[in-house]
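Predict the assembly for these two chains.
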Amino acid sequence: MRKFLCILLAAIAAMTLVACNGNKKDSNSSNSGTPEPTSVNINLDKNTAANISILIPGGNLNERTMINALIEDFALMYPNVNITTNYLTVGSYDSDVKNLARTGTLDDIVWSNSPDFYFLVNNNLVYNLNPYIEASEAANVFNLKNDFHSEYFDMGSLNGNLYCVPRSADSVVTFINTDIFNKAGVDMSVVKDGWSWDTFMDVCATIRTYFDNNGMRDRYVLDANLTSWLSVCYPMLRSFGADVIDDQGNIIIDSEGTRECLALVKEMVDNRYIVDTQKASGSSFEQGTSAMLFQSASVSHYADRVFLKDKVDLVSFPLIMDKNTPKIGCGIAGYCINKNTKYADVCWAFLNYMISYKGQQKMALNGLNLASIRKDLADTSVANWAISYPNINMSAYLYGSEYKIDPSFLAKLSPSMKTDFSTALTDMFSKACNGSKNGDLDKIVRTCVEDMEYALDEY
Amino acid sequence: MSKSKISVKIKKTIKNSYTGWLFNLPLFIGLAVFTLVPVVLSLYDSFFKYDGLNAREWVGMGNYSRIFAGIFNGESGDRDMQKVVINTLVYTVVSIPVNLVASYFLALLVNNSLKGVTAYRIFYYLPCMIPAVAGGLLWADMFDGTYGIFNKILGFFGLGPYQFFKYEDMRALLAVFIMHLWSVGGGMILWLSAFKNIGKHYYEAAKLDGANAWHRLVHITIPMSSAMIFYNIITSTIGTLQYNGTLTFGIRNGRGANNALYMYAVKIYYEAFEKGKVGYASALAWVLLAVIAIITAIMFKTSSWVFYAEEN
């Protein structure tokens, strides 16, 4: 019996190893060049028959609802196309997609966002969609520059190739609690799109004084989302002319601009506009006890909360004009086409519908309250994405397209370095927000450089 | 023995036991596919640089040497390893005794026949029935620096607010220890079962000899439940060394501020699923297995203090 079990275990081990070698071969073959669809047909026959699936974030009810609404419409246009949905978890995006790709079960259309699509591209999992864009422009279906906020398509592109078609324009804006603003006596005429950082700091000072004079010393003026979110901290850094790495891959974060940016953060901590990371805060925007919030989420996420009912308004992210290079953080969520799909043209037809006027309006009626990527839906009085909130300045999402950037430095890094670089950067801001550590900004920058060098050299 | 005799013997064995084998087959297939194969595969992967998707690159003992270089000489290897090992050791060394003692005394408290004692037992055990992930999220909420109920309560006494899990130093681990006291009811049940197996006649005899409650505890209850103490120490050690609960409530993907909560099992998860270093994570897992095996072996070798009633 013992012999039998030993032989059996050895057989399992041998089979496992053989299986590993097989995988190795497959993987090699999948890693050659940027895949493009071999032939492009943008005039899909109405009777085309196909079964395709879409991978979407399961935890996002709005995403599920809006995609299902599109699927319903698409079924009317192409009755023989059957579309199903599968779900992934955004928190474990890379590993979810990796497992599906390994087993050959990755969906035909894959949800992604501006940093995560680099993973798909680095692993050659998705099509370069330029041929479809070119064919659509040639056939006058649309003109990318004229019809869309094309900067969002740039965020779904790498080296000039479009991989991720944006479904909405996500931009960081300043949510404000109008109730606190009014009670603090803030001059609302200065709180408008395009306001400068200096004006913003003056408003912070006014609100700080109001809190202190009214027994609310434990409250903070702003939920800055600085210490965990690249969409706020990276644009701030760039506003001071600093950056993380250059085109040659050299770490360039140790600069005067970085120090100026961190000094600004320190000033906000010292003045108690934002909370010291090692102190607990007695306030939050969501609870109606903090006056401002930097966020790109849909306005419905906050405006319908009990503590914030009829108290929310929006204004653009304040422009840091010190170097005349202000930046506003933004990003996209969108969809890519799996390079192994049998129905690339059908997938494109679906994505083309998604970015069409009708498709964007349909999604907005089914949960998408973020700005549309279409220029003809920029009018907030008629566009469905904004029409439900007539008293809120929804155009803040669209303000300043020339200032908008995403954390594009991640594209210059391999997937395994991406996490460590992001962490190094957010840790640097976290330390600048730590009252017991931010006295020595040089040390904070040096540590960040060391963390990044370690990530680059990492085994 | 001739070939025909062996063949006959095999046939006879199969004939006599095939029903048993058939009953075992589903379990065996499940174990083979979902446990044995992944285990062998992870050992294989541990000698490669492998991201789980693309081709493996042979690195020999490179993954292992990086781990040990990191532990013994932080700068030349994985520089997170020292912090990870220290956190895991501190957590293990403090958490196990604290939880064992707390659950032991809780069991002593409810090991009586007072009216309603069963309700207390159920009440203390209830937290163990909450799934670990739900429990983690619940505690993250209760310990939240802004909305947390603990800070609200402490606020009534003019204390706090505190950051709990978000501290950059050992205070973050302290919050985890406090959180774990929540689940001492699980250990309590095991202790209770051990206490029930101690014959009443020992206590009666001791009382007749004039032993007070303390003497009865030290000279009867503890020695007679030493087998359960040993079992609890072994299982707690294994479980604690593999602790990855911070993934549900710790910031920075469970690592905590300044890696204050960075434990060994979290490191395995982080390397495999956040950074895509499946080969390196496999090596980490095998090192952990080796450490657990060694510690368990040492415990068994030094277990002469354990009293097994059946032996006598």
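Chain B touches chain A through 39 residues (CB under 8 Å). Residues 3-45 of chain B form one domain.
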